[in-house]
Design a protein that fits this description.
Layout lengths: L1 E2 L8 E4 L2 E11 L7 E8 L5 E7 L3 E4 L2 E12 L2 E6 L5 E5 L14 E7 L5 E5 L3 E9 L12 E6 L4 E5 L7 E5 L4 E5 L3
């Protein structure tokens, strides 16, 4: 058993007869009244996200997990296939288990969390950023760089990302997987 002081991003807990992963949390200490923790929980079975508030000192049942590195092989509809980089075993997961499936390209190495009790995969953690090639974008307009203007660009996985005007087709860009935002042009 853990309590609210143990809450951190990525922690898996048992709540309402389901297993949830904490994707956001905020410790709040108001001037009047007891402290509490505001959380955003994502169900690892259904992918549903819910907001919940735990009072300070509330007991939570954490789920013991172990992580393993897997390489993304291919997607077959809404089923994503991965291969363990150590023993080459393959597993298939549903799209709801992934946080940012639109940014996942073949060959990308991800971390998959497994429940230690029954070895069921719980969630897929993407790397903090990915480098993808821009396959389509409109040419930028010269002289329009005084403002922080952006334009939509399609990357090799099919995802759409807003990029600065100086990015052209064929450029490789670094994308933040948590928010899906452009970070910088990738170094060649």
């Amino acid at each position: 058993m853990a309590n609210t002081s143990d809450i951190r991003k990525g922690l898996c807990i048992r709540y309402n007869n389901d297993i949830y992963k904490i994707i956001e949390f905020l410790h709040v200490k108001p001037g009047k009244g007891p402290a509490f923790v505001r959380t955003k929980l994502k169900s690892v079975t259904t992918g549903k996200v819910l907001d919940n508030t735990f009072s300070s000192g509330h007991k939570i049942e954490d789920v013991r997990v172990e992580t393993r590195s897997y390489q993304f092989l291919y997607a077959d509809g809404s089923t994503y296939h991965f291969m363990n980089t150590d023993d080459y075993n393959q597993i298939a997961l549903q799209e709801s288990a992934l946080d940012a499936p639109q940014l996942l390209k073949e060959g990308e190495v991800v971390t998959i969390m497994f429940n230690t009790e029954d070895s069921m995969p719980l969630s897929v953690d993407m790397p903090a950023s990915v480098i993808l090639e821009v396959t389509h974008t409109e040419p930028g307009v010269k002289g329009n760089t005084a403002t922080n203007a952006t334009k939509p660009a399609t990357v090799e996985t099919g995802a759409s990302v807003n990029v600065p005007l100086f990015i052209n087709e064929g450029d490789k860009i670094k994308i933040d997987t948590e928010k899906g935002n452009y970070m910088e042009r990738a170094k060649e």
